[in-house]
Design a protein that fits this description.
5-stranded mixed β-sheet, D-Maltodextrin-Binding Protein, domain 2, 3 domains, binds the ligand NCc1[nH]cc(CCC(=O)O)c1CC(=O)O, Double Stranded RNA Binding Domain, 312 residues, alpha/beta
Amino acid sequence: MNRTLRIGTRGSALALAQTGLMAERLERAGATVEIVTVSTPGDRSHAPIAEIGVGVFTSALRDALANDEVDIAVHSYKDLPTAPDPRLVLAAVPTREDPRDALVARDGMVLGELPAGSRVGTGAARRVTQLEALGLGLEMVPIRGNVDSRVRKVLDGELDAVVVAAAGLSRLGRLDMVTEFLDPIQMLPAPAQGALALECRVDDVDTEHLLRSSLDDQASRAAVTAERAMLAALEAGCSAPVGALADVVEDLDDDGRTVLRLSLRGVAATPQNELLRASATGDLTTAEQLGRALAAELLDLGATVLSGPGSK
Ligand SMILES: NCc1[nH]cc(CCC(=O)O)c1CC(=O)O
């Protein structure tokens, strides 16, 4: 391909960092690329995500792609609405970063060391509900804004701690700030957390082929496919307290041969905001069915079917 590929990104430090990484990899694969920043309503507003709705970070970028203003869009996968965009194709899910949530606390503290009444910043219902379930007496403070500004609130002494995605800090080169990586047994991440989604126009087969062949990672794609299928089946948006994590694990088949399997864990809440946890395993090739089956089990256990805006 000898055309210059325009890669669309949001303008936040995190978005620019992760798009820069993808641009480098595409150049190494022989492509000529140019980065184009697209401003989104999510970047301009400070209102809670629950008010401004799912897709606030991604719709403007998707429109720019569909309108031929850019050729590739790089998204944080967890920010994408679950409904597919018929104008676009998800051409690559690159190897996923650490999917866990991370605690950044004052004085190097881990969760168990935070005194009761400590002020912990997070706006995401999924994080709030799972932290409250630990019964530590923490005071949850709703915050929003980019990763930098959240972490700064701890450095400034405004908050005792914040919970953010480890992947965000990693891509910003700030993993040194993490005082504890939260174990998924206590804190399941948002579906697709730590993964990127690279889209192109559905009729741009050259770009699709390039992205697929140079960036797509099959195991990461299978894992996030299962997580997102669970989310979609619960009809939960980004503000819903739904967490999911699929790990690719080694298993033995009937003939004693090593095979790769998906191990999916999920968490959802009842109407009384009690947490329900469940898990299931399946094949990488049937990731979607696995996600739907786990959602069905959670619904059977009494999980609320949520609708409306919501992804973190
Ligand atoms: N909507 C915010 C958002 N979208 C993606 C990430 C982190 C990186 C990732 O999960 O890929 C974050 C910040 C956070 O949740 O702390």
